[in-house]
Amino acid sequence: MVAPSFAEFVTGAWKTACHDRCKPSTQQRMGSALRTQLLPTFGPQRLSGIDRSDVTAWFDLYSRTAPAGANRTLDILRQIFNHAIECGHVDSNPTCGVRHNPRRRVTRFLSRDEIGRVLAVLRAHRGRGSGRQQADIIRLLLLTGCRKSEVLLLRWSEVDGDTLRLSDSKTGPRTILLSAGAQAILARQPRSDSAYVFPSLQDPSRPRSSELSLWRKVRREARIDDVRLHDLRHTFASHAVMRGVPLPVLSHLLGHSRDRMTLRYAHVGDREAEDAAERIGAQVAALLDEVA
């Protein structure tokens, strides 16, 4: 029996048995990985003709620009070939031996000064259409601590006054309370026939692309080149902890099922720690001088 092509398999047997059984948000991520990476690279090839060298070449190239994205897409490719083995199309998985890129430790969040610089760049941005939409998405991520997918896939039916009632997220349905600033951002979004708050400008029946090219400009002009978009979520969480928000409350705000997960975000930045140590040291030194 001749093995099907990669494209035939993922749009047929794998889609029915694996993709269609996943949550909508997971299907969205898988679909994006297939459209942008896997189908353009492996689509016409027979499953039996794809070997480890092919996977390694693709993975290394993708990792140069998006190491975390390459890791996630490698996991999808691995699952596809595991199912191909179950179906009898191949004998081994060509992703075996291809290692993930090392994950960066989650220690980075924006200081108050850096937040001010980011907001200044966004205020100075006078873009139209996609640019203006991207600026509001970035603001909303910073104000809510939401995951990027939760904002990009947000539907008007999930907006309920000062609350977002998400029907689906990484951890299932969840509720997000909105500050006045976040409510103002949502209120100024154009209403149309689209179900999405941030629809694609090319096809309003779909959510906008996950590509937020404006963030690269913001990072450069705000002088925060080491900050990822996901670090805005860390920023929200870390500043909440520094202001005394209890861990269980923060866990609820972030949509975590366990407090232990929230601890990853409860970091105090090196600069903030140094400043605090300096202030405490100065106060103690002053007291010692008085005693002397």
Profile the largest sheet. 3 strands, antiparallel
Number of helices: 14
Backbone structural class: mainly alpha
Strand arrangement, major sheet: 1-2-3
Poorly predicted ranges: none
Assigned CATH superfamily of the domain at 112-229: Intergrase catalytic core
Helix content: 40-55%
* Overall outline: globular
The CATH C-level class name of the domain at 112-229: Mainly Alpha
Radius of gyration: 23 Å
Give the overall pLDDT as a whole number: 86
- In CATH, the architecture of the domain at 112-229 is Orthogonal Bundle
The count of strands amounts to 3
First-last Cα distance: 91 Å
Strand and helix order: HHHHHHHHEEEHHHHHH
Characterization of the model:
The chain is globular and about 80 Å long. A hairpin with a 2-residue loop joins strand 1 (159-160) and strand 2 (163-166). The mean pLDDT is 86. It has helices spanning 6-11, 13-17, 24-42, 52-63, 67-86, 112-124, 130-144, 148-152, 180-187, 214-221, 231-242, 247-254, 259-262, 270-291; strands at residues 159-160, 163-166, 174-177. By secondary structure, it is mainly alpha-helical. A three-stranded antiparallel β-sheet has the order 1-2-3, with no helix packed on it. Helix 4 (52-63) runs antiparallel to helix 5 and helix 7 (130-144) runs parallel beside helix 11 (231-242). Among the domains are: 6-86; 112-229, hpI Integrase, Chain A. The chain has 14 helices and three strands. The longest helix has 22 residues, at 270-291.
